[in-house]
């Protein structure tokens, strides 16, 4: 009987998930992970009035203390309307740098009227855990906590400290993530449970491959502004602020940044190509061989899921202009949101945008908040071997390879301290069922048992 079926009593249907073992070995951890995730989802940990992230932190703190952590080793620190948490499991050798497990407790806003189910009333139905945070990332946090408690239950003693660091505003200002990275700047490496790509086959529902993330693109916002004296709308003239801004935006739309390749993305294209349709597969292999291949670039750029992996992307996300219905606009502005390839400075990208706009009267300013430029993390052998071994304990022979995410996470703050940070969420989803930040967010409960086993292998391997 598949280990995932231990949760069958909670569901009417269990998605197909391959299992390495025949019987459940960690039923307490598996049950606790689901229960903890449900309780956490019930808290509306959204930035703004009524933010319940501090309650999530206290929930997790109570669970860790009940599981054997010393109260003095866990701190929950208020910060504005949110909070962050640090839980330390002291190791046997204090001279060793700690292993940090990173994550966040907040979620993006969800309007109940838009959902089929209340986003903050967790429910298990048809084999899925529904609710805001089921994927990003309250279930992942619960999996880590349940795994740490299970290791204590089994009598494990780490050689180096294991530190669980959970931020409280990752989905907004990301200030607490920076605080945590500053406080834990002595870390050996960081495992981020926020991101990871475990892909289930769309037809069979079985695991197809697993990609851990060793780099992420830099988030940036640039404001474009055009101003002029304006005038009466009955006396139109060629110099119109909105028209000039629109023309510049169209020129930027046509501009393509130079395609880029690093060791992580090259490995991803080579290994992930086998799971793509023939045309995409050929383009991925060609790009990995020659990042200047125009045919490959055109094919990959046409796919929204892949264009972000071949270089910097910039897109207009907000516009504002004019001051009255019957007046020529005195100003017009737009926000350009960029996801910058690792290693490139924001200033260089803004200079490219200015050049692409081709209008000296369009003024640019960097209005980025809560972001920092970082390089990719190195592919450290002890990590790559440990993550591959851990994944093969639950899915023997499954392809495991590195990748790069187009989004931003708290990993950037640790990388800014030159600490290797790797995203390793062991949750597997079909690409069509990834509803992070979207409506009706859900995750298969069948992912829970193998995810526990994954952490029970990975954490000891990196904290010995």
Structure summarized in a few sentences:
This protein folds into 2 domains: 3-216 and 375-463, Zn peptidases (Aminopeptidase), CATH 3.40.630.10; 218-366, Alpha-Beta Plaits (2-Layer Sandwich). Helices cover 31% and strands 22% of the residues. The chain is built from 12 helices and 19 strands.
List descriptors:
alpha/beta; disordered N terminus; 464 residues; 31% helix; Aminopeptidase; Alpha-Beta Plaits
Beta strand %: 15-25%
Lateral strand order in the biggest sheet = 1-2-6-3-7-17
CATH class call of the largest domain: Alpha Beta
How would you characterize the largest beta sheet?
Answer: 6 strands, mixed
* Global mean pLDDT: 93
Helix content: 25-40%
What is the fold named in CATH at topology level of the largest domain?
A: Aminopeptidase
Number of domains: 2
Sheet/helix structural class: alpha/beta
| Amino-to-carboxy terminus distance | 32 Å
Architecture (CATH level 2) name of the largest domain? 3-Layer(aba) Sandwich
Question: What is the overall number of helices?
Answer: 12
